[in-house]
Amino acid sequence: MPKKRDMDKSYGEKVIRLFAGLMFSGRPRSLTELANTLNCSKQTILRILRDIESSYQVQVERTERGREAIFCIKGQKPPPAAYLTPNEMNILWMCHAFTERLLGKKMFEEAKEALDKSRALLKDPGYIYDANFACMYSGSIDYTKHQDTISSLIKAMNDRSLCKVVYKSPWNPKPKTFYIKPLKLFSYKEALYLHALRAKDPWQKKYVEPEFDPVLAIHRFKKVEIDDSKAHFEVPKQYDFQKAFNQTFGIIKDGKFVVEAEFTGWAAVYVEERVWSADQEITRDGDKVRIRFTASSEPEIVSWILSFGEEGRLLGPVDVQERIKERIAKMNLSYLTNTLSGC
């Protein structure tokens, strides 16, 4: 018998979370989105929706967007901020502070204004100290000058509109212009990315299907234009961001391979405390920690192992192990050359 997707949440908890999500979000939610949010099957979501209609005496409205079922609670509006508690406000302030490096100055200030308005509407402000939270900026990207790009992409995702983009990859000498269907804006290692589908240029008859769908770094966009035609795209029914990106190690999605590595000292503690892949297996033997998981990006595995210095060692696969040896040899030669030249 297959294991249930979420053993930690009771059915009652899921009913409350789903009801609150539909009531307070102010927007329709797809069946796939609800299933991913509650970490349960679509059949369970449909059963919960039936129970909500009968127990809460509300009407759950179902519409169709392409082949996807969309749900919302019809005709129900909660009083402003009446259900927001001081603890919830503190959590929102914490999320606000932790994402400052990703929002950029303009959006960060807009988020702060929204939270200030919500706090003013609370019946019982309680103990809310936004000064309790902060973030460090070292190694982060300043997204202040990319606010228009982010806003345009969010609007295009909401409207399901095509975008004409000018994008400068670090591997190409000149920016390229192409059309995309923006699907998901996400953060990864202190940076923002967009997962999109390539789209046909409406002014060109010839179109060659790309080998893969692009993952685009927000700070490398030079221009974003929303297609003002009435043509809209549909998100593929089978699209699942969690399955596409959070099942294996690495933002690059090439062929899958199994990684085995061993760590000691501070690296052992660091690796043991974190989730690297959905299928990871971690074992400890004295002061050594061994991990096994599925990856999809050889360059990222090489960089990952090297970041731990002498405290990390790749056990397999052998071909990736050879890449690491080659990288170490080149690094050693670089430092040796500098030493001999007196630098």
Structure description:
- By secondary structure, the chain is of the alpha+beta class.
- The protein folds into 4 domains: 11-73, Arc Repressor Mutant, subunit A (Orthogonal Bundle); 86-132; 144-241; 257-337, Alpha-Beta Plaits (2-Layer Sandwich), CATH 3.30.70.
- Helix content is 38%, strand content 22%.
- It is built from 10 helices and 12 strands.
- The protein has helices spanning 11-25, 31-38, 42-56, 86-98, 100-121, 147-159, 241-245, 265-272, 298-306, 318-340; strands at residues 29-30, 60-65, 68-73, 163-167, 176-188, 191-199, 215-217, 221-226, 257-263, 281-285, 288-295, 312-316.
- The strands form 3 sheets. It has a 5-stranded antiparallel β-sheet, with helices on one face.
- Strand 10 (281-285) and strand 11 (288-295) form a beta hairpin.
- Helix 1 crosses helix 3 (42-56) and helix 2 crosses helix 3.
- The N and C termini lie far apart (65 Å).
- The model is unreliable at 1-8 (pLDDT under 50).
